[in-house]
Amino acid sequence: PPERKRFYQNVSISQGEGGFEINLDHRKLKTPQAKLFTVPSEALAIAVATEWDSQKDTIKFYTMHLTTLCNTALDNPTQRNKMQLIRAAVKFLETDTVCYRVEEPAALAELQKKEWDPVVAWAEKRYNVAIGSSTSILGPNIPATTKETFVSHLASYNMWALQGIEYVITQLKSLILSMGLIDRHITVEKAVLLSRLEEEYQIQRWGSVEWAHDYDLCELRARAAAGTLFVHLCSESSTVKHKLLQD
């Protein structure tokens, strides 16, 4: 949506029946489909409120990644169920960035091996699966058992967290890098660098377009960081609720 003039002075959160709500002055925030904007954890509500409070004279919706993710989780515009979300995420394995390798130039092939092999090896060990890599345009042949293992793992997340996971995957074009990031194995900066390895290699050789490269890099970091934070805040809230119910 286009920018609009900031129409509120104060941002606050309050607890309602369905969770935590965001208040813009005395008005409750709504989703694009006019649903009450309610999030499952206080920490997520504070993070979203901070996005709204940090807007200046105009509201720049494109900078509000957590708000966007919450809207997606609440409105579910594509009307997908949990298994459809999981299958869409796992399908990225077939075209995963870190599995596609080049043979030439030799320097880039060596860089891919050096930077990507360790994260693939980590994922194989972490999830007890076979992934591999390929220089074929068809990509690696991912075993069905590997896909099913990731399906089972992702099924342990709730719907909100899954929306965040898919968001991170689409930013990085990699399920493997995304899981490494969400599992805190690699940092946001590292995950973004690995997802842009070929582009960074070309920039080192030929230089970058002034401003454009830095902007793209910062924007991708912001999106990956927001998606990862969203997953953690949504996952932790369900864990807390579960423990409370057990107690």
TrEMBL record:
Main location: mitochondrion
Highest taxon listed in the record's lineage: Eukaryota
Signal sequence range: none
This protein's record includes keyword Chaperone: yes
One cellular component term from this protein's GO annotations in UniProt: mitochondrial inner membrane
Membrane topology: Peripheral membrane protein
Family (UniProt): Belongs to the ATP12 family.
PANTHER family per the UniProt record, alphabetical: ATP SYNTHASE MITOCHONDRIAL F1 COMPLEX ASSEMBLY FACTOR 2 (PTHR21013:SF10), ATP SYNTHASE MITOCHONDRIAL F1 COMPLEX ASSEMBLY FACTOR 2/ATP12 PROTEIN, MITOCHONDRIAL PRECURSOR (PTHR21013)
Protein name: ATP synthase mitochondrial F1 complex assembly factor 2
Lineage: Eukaryota, Metazoa, Chordata, Craniata, Vertebrata
